[in-house]
Amino acid sequence: MKHFTALFTELDQTTKTLNKIQALAGYFEIATDRDKLWAIAILSHRRPKRSVNATLLALWASELSDLPAWLFEESHHVVGDLAETITLVLPPPREVSSETLTFWIEFIRSLDPLTVDQNKEKILWAWDRLDAMERFVFNKLLTGGFRIGVSQQLMVKALAKHAQVKENVVAHRLMGNWSPDLSTFQELVLSEDSLDLSRPYPFYLAYALEAPVSDLGELTEWQAEWKWDGIRGQVIVRNRELFVWSRGEELVTDKYPEFAVFLDLLPDGTVIDGEILPFKNDMPLSFNKLQTRIGRKTLSAKQLKDVPVAFVTYDLLEWQGVDVRGWPLHERRKQLAELCNVGSSVLRLSPTVNVETWEQLGEERLRARTLFSEGIMLKRKDSIYRDGRRRGDWWKWKIDPFIIDAVMIYAMSGHGRRANLYTDYTFAVWKNDQLVPFAKAYSGLTDEEIRAVDRWVKQNTIEKFGPVRSVKPELVFEIAFEGIAKSTRHKSGIALRFPRINRWRKDKPIHEANTLEDLVKVLESNS
Amino acid sequence: MALLEFNDCGIYCQLADVYLDPWKPVKKALITHGHSDHARWGHEQYLCTVAASPVIRHRLQLTTKLQTVEFGEILTINGVQFSYHPAGHIPGSAQIKVEHKGEVWVFSGDYKVQPDNISEPFELQRCHTFITESTFGLPIYKWEPQQAVFQEINEWWRKNQGEGKVSVLAGYSLGKAQRILRNVDASIGKIFVHGAVETTTQILRAQKLTLPETIRVIPDMKKKDFEGALVVCPPSAVGSPWLRRFDPYSLGIASGWMNLRGARRRRGADRGFILSDHADWNELNQVIRGTGAEKVYVTHGYSEIFSQWLNENGIQSEIVKTQYEGELSEIVEGVDHESNVVGAMDSV
């Protein structure tokens, strides 16, 4: 645990990629293979299940530090993180720990089947032998949500450096279903054969286009497609088995029973990339419809009938059991088109947008909303399929968002990097002379603006409710959003998709903010 | 009539017609220390300790309007006795004791108990009523002894030196900066300071505070001048182009707020050193018990929470709204103590 805690401390103390890679590589040099595997697992969000609930942890920590529960709770609001709050209030440990990371992971996993009293005894034993930083790491492993500031890409770099294996090979091996229990470091990183049938390829992700589109050169070198507003997915058919992965590396095969037909449509050794979209009568539906299906454990017959899904595919990654990511896009596309030419309503080839000039493409882009598309994807025709987010070959050219001016009426303190700082705001628009809340947003301001708003909030609070403050209606912000839908769950009767702060309208008095009527007009003209 | 009361201008003693650390212009102001939220512009008369006076005189450009007293000296105004006692916050900082017909009130100003090697050590005063700050009035704030923090700072400086980086450390130009200068291992390398730090440092040096040699950063200096050096600057310099000249550098911030990981991370500092000039949770509790006060007024900081805690523990307590900025001035990072914070907000 000492080594891993030191690694965490080092990673936490730097924002520079190079230092992070160095720290990771340094850790891989000294850690045991078992600990290494767990470190990789933790850094790629494969953590032991939460085995003790947060309320109990808070209770035990406040008992141990002789604090009333309300005071612990207030402290928690200020810190914004349970694991850290516990770490800060506990009395210093009386013992020292020399146990390994693997020991503590096993320890946390051993909590699961036991009774509350036994769990308590064990946790108190642990807290009494871990120093402050070790406690924090331990608590984080216990409570989940451990953000360490290391992207998958960064870890892949460090691991590749350590194991002397190519980055893209490491990236691929770390995908999908592996568990530190079942693998050894040898098998996971160093061995040549892939045992895992379900293992997906790393997704290739595009950056948003910022420069004028004509800077991309000749249109003939580019393939334009619609950018779909669904769930990015990868479909794998191998050895007469079907696996559907979402971009979050979650296996979602069971959530989309419609895709069972792929076993008939796709031969073994096929992997395709695309978008899971709600699709009915040959038309995509709004993403909001899909949201009613996400997160459900069981799907009713009605849901399946009301919101059927299709897989709109745009790339071929594996063909006849061979990794074809190195083929140029036009060749992958040709093979993919052949594969999709089976007249299925579930397996659909994402159409290309065929125009002569960038201007014409710009005009097409304006049509995107009517197709429930978010804009245009541009892909270089001779590009290979790369891994992770990369510049150069793929770009997303999204349509401009909707814009509305709104008044801030509540502020809440943030978490993590934004703990103890009022960063999460609730916005309202006018309905007659009332301000009706309609959206929450917490991004889009610069750090300097956040500090200024934070100060303003502290000086203009009307009432406090736990971490939330109601504030004097005075500040106006421009809110951007991607979509709008009716909602019965919200007071305003509408729900926005991806609302965020576009800018602070210091020039606008509150009576110039938009009205609910304005929002309803946007809703009506877009459905 | 209470001996001290709280009104729009500040903490008021009607019997003597004087204010303690008032925030609006008044006739006579008794000042605890030179930080800008306690020593403000525009009063007709100022009274502070001899030790606090040079900084206050300089900052507020006072010539004739400032009177001084020694620590412990009793000053009687209209039958009310006033005396100043070390608060341990910064050099010259005081608690103000007010006594009338056997009734004793103490206003703490800002204070800390842990010795810092530059401030007159905190002296506990028994009283009936205590007016306390609560900047760090939550059980999550518990400071390590300063030796441990300075060991970390020294190690960080040495490590940076080894990596060819300048060590830039931000701390308030009055108090924190000199505490750093006094306690850091000056044998490691040269120490440079920002102009704002140098001004205050010179004033304190003239008061016989022994501090290592410092070099003021001036525009003509070249990168190689700073090789292996420590640079002490105010927090307002963080994120400003002023820092560019030191590249490559490692940025450290010395503040009690660095106790929280979120605060450390959002400043984009490489290192946060938990070094505060305010009492931590244990010190606040220890001092309040020690005063024997029956009634405690809680001013700036986590006042509501801290006051509730005192009430639950058998100490009658109330919140007082003041314009001291213990919370604001440090929480809202990037704003220096010496800049007029309220004014800065108005210009937004």
Model description:
The complex is a heterodimer of chains A (527) and B (348). Chain A is of the alpha+beta class. Chain A has 3 domains: 2-143, Orthogonal Bundle (DNA ligase i, domain 1), CATH 1.10.3260; 204-398, D-amino Acid Aminotransferase, Chain A, domain 1, CATH 3.30.470; 402-525, Nucleic acid-binding proteins (OB fold (Dihydrolipoamide Acetyltransferase, E2P), Beta Barrel), CATH 2.40.50.140. Chain A is built from 19 helices and 20 strands. In chain A, the strands form 4 sheets. In chain A, strands 3, 4, 5, 6, 7, 8 and 9 form a 7-stranded mixed β-sheet that branches. In chain A, strands 12, 13, 14, 15, 16, 17 and 20 form a 7-stranded antiparallel β-sheet that branches. The longest helix of chain A has 14 residues, at 17-30. The mean pLDDT of chain A is 89. By secondary structure, chain B is α/β, with parallel strands linked by helices. Chain B folds into 2 domains: 5-141 and 277-346, Ribonuclease Z/Hydroxyacylglutathione hydrolase-like (Metallo-beta-lactamase, Chain A, 4-Layer Sandwich); 146-273, 3-Layer(aba) Sandwich (Rossmann fold). Chain B is 24% helix and 24% strand. Chain B has 9 helices and 19 strands. Chain B has a 7-stranded mixed β-sheet. In chain B, β5 (45-49), α1 (53-59) and β6 (66-69) form a beta-alpha-beta unit. The longest helix of chain B has 17 residues, at 146-162. The A-B interface holds A 12-15, 65, 67-68, 70-72, 74-75, 78-81, 84-85, 88-89, 414-421, 447-448, 451-452, 454-456, 458-459, 506 and B 138-142, 239, 259-266, 268, 270-271, 302, 305, 308-309, 312, 327-328, 331-335, 341, 345, 348.
